[in-house]
Amino acid sequence: MPVLEPESFNLAGFVPCRMVRVGIDLPEPFARITLLPDDTSLVEFEIPISIEQARQLALIVAKERAPRPMTTELMQDILASYGFSVSYVALQAIVDGNVHAVLALSSQDGRTRLFSARPSDAIMLALLQPVQAPILVSPTLVAEREEVHGQEDSGVTVQENEPEDGTEPSRVTPVSPVDLVTSKDSQDQDQE
After folding, report:
1. 148-189 pLDDT, tens digit each
2. Are 91 and 136 in contact, with CB atoms under 8 Å apart?
3. What own/partner pairs with CB < 8 Å and gap ≥ 24 does 50-58 have?
4. Are 36 and 44 in contact (CB under 8 A)?
5. Residue 64 class from Cβ within 10 Å (0-12 exposed, 13-18 middle, 19+ buried)?
6. Can you tell me the distance from the alpha carbon of 137 to that of 15, in angstroms, rounded to the nearest whole number?
7. What gap in Å lies between CA 142 and CA 157, rounded to an integer?
8. pTM above the 0.85 mark?
9. Which residues 6+ apart lie within 8 Å of 156 measured at CB?
10. What percentage of the chain reaches a pLDDT higher than 90?
11. If exposure means fewest CB atoms within 10 Å of the residue's CB, which of 56, 82, 151, 153 is most exposed?
12. What is the average pLDDT value for the chain, to the nearest integer?
């Protein structure tokens, strides 16, 4: 069932983002999707997801398909067969510590329907489109993240990417679809 009438959902102020990484930093029990706003003056935004969702997302990013369709691929195939496509994904708010997303689907007749979705599912569907659908983050979510993490930056942020050695922070660059190397292991390898 659609969660909102499209006319009542205002995208003003939403920040377009692109996915730059899906990975896990062991020993964390979950993976993370890292989004980077198109406005490069802003810093990255992370969303925790399950390990299984990370595996599915990594396959999608690598443009590989499992021998049998994964749940999101199956959903995409069904939507496409009925003439639906993803118009956009909007990460809307944090409710009880969880990020809530809205998935906008358009039909061949031009109608748009909005559905509540988990961010990982919505992002996977956006990436599975022939032309990737936009991923947007709400200004409310930006403000909540800044307040929760005590950030005063004007960007979408959870992590600031400041190196521990005091040098200038660097921009996030895309990495392999799944990075299963821990931060500590990376540092140990650099020292060898």
Report:
1. 555 443 333 333 333 344 433 333 323 333 333 333 343 344
2. yes
3. 50/120, 51/24, 53/120, 53/121, 53/124, 54/22, 54/23, 54/24, 54/178, 55/178, 56/124, 57/22, 57/33, 57/120, 57/123, 57/124, 57/127, 57/177, 58/22, 58/177, 58/178
4. yes
5. exposed
6. 5
7. 7
8. no
9. 15, 17, 35, 37, 42, 43, 44, 45, 137, 141, 142, 145
10. 45
11. 82
12. 76
Distance, in Å, from the CA atom of 140 to the CA atom of 12, rounded to the nearest integer, reads 11
Q: Which helix (H) or strand (E) holds 80?
A: helix 71-81
Q: What is the Cα–Cα distance from 79 to 95, expressed in whole angstroms?
A: 28
75-115 confidence digits (pLDDT tens): 999 999 999 999 999 999 888 888 999 999 999 998 999 99
Q: Look at the block and give the residue holding tokens 């809530």.
A: 100
- pLDDT above 90 (res 3): no
* Highest-scoring range by mean pLDDT, 3-12, 125-134, 155-164: 125-134
Retrieve residue 119's tokens.
Answer: 């961010």
Q: Which two tokens stand for residue 116?
A: 């509540």
Residue whose pair of structure tokens reads 């400041």 in the numeric block: 162
Q: Strands, E, within the chain: which ranges? A: 15-23, 31-37, 45-49, 85-95, 98-106, 112-117, 135-137
The structure tokens listed for 165 are 């050695």
